[in-house]
Design a protein that fits this description.
The structure is a single chain. Helix content is 5%, strand content 51%. It has 422 residues and is mostly beta strands. The strands form six sheets. The chain has a seven-stranded mixed beta sheet with strand order 1-12-11-5-6-7-8.
């Protein structure tokens, strides 16, 4: 079945099939069929409501409608399940087998004391005595989740942050295997030695379906950033010939920024003598648009009437952000001092960014140097490097939150990051 027809059938099942409670525990060895192996970078809005084109459908099965997407450094998962059940995400980060190595993570999302909660653990299969679970409380600490019930089903939406552990991919070269299941909220944890069959997926900034044979394309500006109130241009480059009979190209942004951006449709241009054709998607992103990774959707109609689809992710970004460089820190029985690096990154097209940053350490930690720093960024979308020295208490171990308080143009914005001490 062509990819577009399969995906359309999947979407129809999402809208028409009621969620039914499965009669048994997850059959972890039953293969999971996914709607699309290429997973786009898309940032959701966490409010317990699945909006149109907000989420990328992954699976529709008994008792579960599931969604999965990503952005650099984060994974996003959502599911609609019967009330009283949890959402269970299995991740094989190297896609080499569930009981191979120590890179396999289970994330459980459910209601606890009336609030949605996230817990995570890793199965370590490198031990001579057999696999064992290792809790990952940092993922629950650093991640965000929302839930809403309609009286019959509960919708969970979660953005997973690995809290500086370095598990989640930071670029579109990431390939992993995933699985979504649902379990009763009071079901005990499974044993670590139980095998699971996961499905490989590819994290990407682009994907396409139902394009004519002989046509190649790419998007220049994929992963590019734009601030609300500014313009972005994404160039679509096509390689082919006029014999393909391409007629028309319609372009728009999907989901949460569709109303905040432009739509356009143009006749498909002729190919040049090198077999190339170019079409630009130019749009203003209005002020107040939702921040995060968004998707350009281009629909290409040929002479046969069949419509092919191309998608490319781009980012609606804030003026500035702070990025803490992940550094391995070993726990010591005595107090220790470590130097850590962070970057102040500008996404503004303006050449001048002036402000200050205050670093707030975790409780019982102290800053030796670098607590306050002024900055002056003199290049459009430039960045600056800063270093601070942190006094770590004796025996400190685990994941700890850092806070970066940025003052700019009379406004204060706070950014969170995490250090991991093992």
């Amino acid at each position: 079945m062509p990819a577009t027809l399969f995906f359309a059938a999947f979407l129809l099942s999402q809208n028409s099939t009621p969620v039914q409670t499965p009669a048994t525990a997850p059959a972890f060895q039953t293969p999971m069929t996914v709607a699309e192996q290429m997973r786009l970078a898309i940032t959701p809005k966490l409010d317990g409501v699945i909006e149109d084109e907000e989420w990328d459908p992954l699976v529709s099965a008994e008792g579960l409608k599931g969604y999965f997407q990503w952005e650099p450094g984060k994974l996003h998962v959502a599911g609609v399940v019967p009330n009283g059940r949890d959402l269970l995400l299995s991740l094989d980060l190297r896609s080499d087998g569930w009981l191979v190595g120590g890179d396999n993570i289970e994330v459980r999302i459910g209601m606890r004391d009336g609030q949605p909660r996230i817990s995570a653990r890793r199965v370590d299969a490198t031990q001579v005595n057999g696999p064992r679970w290792i809790d990952l409380p940092g993922i629950g600490m650093a991640s965000a989740v929302a839930a809403k019930s309609d009286g019959t089903n509960t919708t969970f939406e979660a953005s997973l942050n690995d809290a500086g552990l370095g598990y989640f991919p930071t670029d579109d070269r990431g390939r992993m295997s995933v699985r979504l299941d649902t379990v009763a909220a009071d079901a005990p944890p499974t044993e670590p030695f139980v095998p699971r069959v996961l499905t490989p997926v590819q994290l990407s900034f682009t994907r396409s379906a139902a394009l004519p044979n002989g046509l190649r394309w790419n998007a220049e500006g994929t992963g590019e950033t734009v601030m609300p109130g500014d313009n972005i241009r994404i160039r679509l480059t096509f390689n082919g010939t006029d014999k393909l009979g391409l007629q028309r190209l319609a372009m728009r942004s999907e989901g949460l920024v569709r109303a905040a951006t432009s739509e356009s449709a143009v006749p498909f241009p002729p190919f040049d003598n090198k077999g190339r054709a170019f079409v630009d998607y130019n749009t203003l992103v209005v002020k107040g648009a939702d921040l995060g990774y968004r998707v350009l959707r281009a629909s290409l109609t040929g002479s046969d009437g069949v419509t092919g689809v191309m998608e490319a992710s781009y980012r609606v970004a804030p003026p500035l952000e702070v990025r803490l460089v992940r550094e391995p820190i070993r726990s010591k029985p005595q107090a220790q001092k470590v130097k850590l690096t962070y970057y102040i990154k500008s996404f503004s097209p303006l050449r001048r960014q002036v402000g200050s940053v205050t670093v707030v350490p975790p409780t019982d930690f102290h800053l030796v140097t670098g607590a306050d720093s002024n900055f002056f960024i003199d290049a459009a979308k430039g960045s600056l490097r800063r270093v601070f020295e942190l006094d770590i208490p004796a025996g400190a171990k685990g994941v700890y939150p850092m806070l970066f308080r940025v003052q700019r143009n009379g406004q204060v914005t706070e950014y969170s990051a995490y250090i991991n001490i093992d």
